[in-house]
Amino acid sequence: MIDVRNVVHRYAGQSVPALSGISLHVREGSLFGLLGPNGSGKTTLISILTGILRSNEGRVQIGGLEMPAKARAVQQFLSLVPQENAFYPTLTIAENLRFFASVQNIPTTVQPSRIEEALHSTGLSNATGLRADRLSGGMKRRLSIALGLLNRPRLLFLDEPTVGIDPQSRQFLLDAIKRINAGGTTVVYCSHYMEEVEYLCDEVAILDHGRVLKQ
After folding, report:
1. d(Cα 45, Cα 33) in Å, to the nearest integer?
2. For 161-215, how does the pLDDT look when each residue is reduced to its tens digit (9 = 90+)?
3. Interval 37-49: pLDDT, tens
4. Which pTM value belongs to this model?
5. Which of 20, 72, 104, 181 is most buried, by CB atoms within 10 Å?
6. Quick one: how far is CA 38 from the chain centroid?
7. At a CB cut-off of 8 Å and minimum separation 6, what does 190 contact?
8. Dihedral class, residue 169 (left if φ above 0, else alpha if ψ from -120 to 50, else beta)
9. How far is CA 198 from CA 9, 35, 110, 181, 202, in A?
């Protein structure tokens, strides 16, 4: 699903590259862990893999397609749930889902079923009328993941999805991610929590200082 060869990325004005010759392989259907401390390069790598950034050097293929040349095509079958919640706080859960389904150009005929699938996967079916700004931290993260499932992604990136939430919500999210992967979605899970990666992932790459220490 993902093939990365010798990727280097330098931010403007920085003498030390954020990524220094990253190479890794993610097989289709896996629940792949990117483990590393804050500042290790995880978010930069995800940004390159999703077409947000361009690498300075190296080669990236997603689903057999070259990045960034085929970024538009790749973005049709992947989804990214970023570290920060990305939804409208004054809208309800249902209103957010309907809005983002429209933004993603999901046909109106299938929007209700896509929304119901996302709600079911994240355990939000009984909370659709709640305003997003009144949700607990754990429910906000569930909403973010629900939004990321609307396009039925073949490839789902989750960037530190459990930071700042309570233990019960954390366990619910981890189990939900397992179910999403079991349904056929390739998941790339980024975290600095070793115990989460051990619990979830069948393959792991350890990053530090912009390098893969082990895969």
Report:
1. 13
2. 998 888 988 999 999 999 999 999 999 999 999 999 999 999 999 999 999 987 6
3. 988 999 999 999 9
4. 0.93
5. 181
6. 16
7. 33, 34, 42, 43, 46, 157, 158, 159, 160
8. alpha
9. 28, 10, 36, 15, 8
